[in-house]
Amino acid sequence: MKFRPLRLASVTDSTPAEPIAVPEEMRAVVFDAPGDADALRVTATPTPAPVLSEVLVRVIAAGVNPIDAKTRSGAGLSAAIEGYPSTLGFDFSGVVVTSPYETHPFPVGTEVFGMAAFPRSGGSYAEYVVAPTLSVARKPTSLSHVEAAGVPLAALTAWGLVVETAHAHEGQRILIHAGSGGVGHFAVQLAAYFGAHVTATGSGPNLGWLRELGASVVIDRLTTRFEDVVGEVDVVIDLVGNTHDTTGSRSIGVIRRGGLYVLVPTGSWPGYAEAAAAATVRATSYKVTPDGVVLATLARLLDSGAIRVFVDRVFPLSEAAAAHRELEQGHTRGKIVLSVAEA
Ligand SMILES: NC(=O)c1ccc[n+]([C@@H]2O[C@H](COP(=O)([O-])OP(=O)(O)OC[C@H]3O[C@@H](n4cnc5c(N)ncnc54)[C@H](OP(=O)(O)O)[C@@H]3O)[C@@H](O)[C@H]2O)c1
Fold first, then answer.
1. What is the mean pLDDT of residues 278-295?
2. Which of 13, 100, 135, 243 has its CA 20 to 30 A from that of 204?
3. Which residues contact ligand 1 via a Cβ below 6 A?
4. Which atom from ligand 1 is nearest to the alpha carbon of 264?
């Protein structure tokens, strides 16, 4: 059998984009020591320089995640901070201004979204951010930068939970706690997309919205104990844990023998594995990994309308402290995003 040689585009087929000037200093939100939201301040700071495996991105919008607020307060990933002042933020959407080489898949001028080096440093609450090229994908064309910035960490987590860990499939019964938050609203949609029967917990006006996202059953966590009504499920994706109440412990009792419990706020219940083993339930924690290939898949799902991102509130970069205060209320529907620059 003969193989035809592949016709590869010649490198001369693509005209390198004009270089984009990058200022030596940029505006960024920093904090000087762990503290409450008031610890965040806007200042001028040196623009970061990428190494060869990274792109430098002009940030147009930056997503806000609970891990940012936890890290700011001295928990979360604060041990990874190498020095202060430090800039928070993993999610971004923007434009590549420095690329490793002319014909790189993300050349100068490409609209991208992705995650800054996670969990090492972050830095997307700023006008420029460096990101590993493997943590970046082309921005979904149908989304604004504000919408795209709400996607990466939360949607990658949801994909990791629903697709890679729970292997969502037709007929599988999945209970998702906190279905209306950043991770939850993607998890509900992805689980339903792959055919699972989704039950989600939430409260107030989010209940009707959870149905719109694809949940077959919604449970008002403020009026109903989920274990009284949910029956037996195959999988619990727990975005709450045991920090605020006993959501984690009570979840074990609703999972069938051999079913799966996934704890997402990983430090919230040190004894989860023993409790699950005693009930003959499999259990695991989960930690998100930036992945440009999965992000590109998510971009296709977003552009096709199979899933959507919901941005609850947008704050200017200068009001990052207000964004953190809002997030820490614990009632975000979908995502909170910082607007950094004009597209
Ligand atoms: N391990 C990892 O890799 C990883 C990755 C991402 C996130 N996380 C963690 O996962 C958790 C969720 O993240 P997120 O971004 O989705 O947070 P989020 O957007 O702040 O979640 C907000 C939602 O949580 C719901 N909620 C709050 N308390 C609840 C309770 N007791 N029961 C049910 N729902 C409750 C609220 O729903 P209602 O207002 O409708 O009640 C709200 O819509 C956080 O702790 C985060 O740090 C871990």
1. 97
2. 243
3. 65-67, 153-154, 157, 177-178, 180-184, 201-203, 206, 221, 239-240, 244-245, 247, 264-266, 286-288, 327, 330-333
4. 1
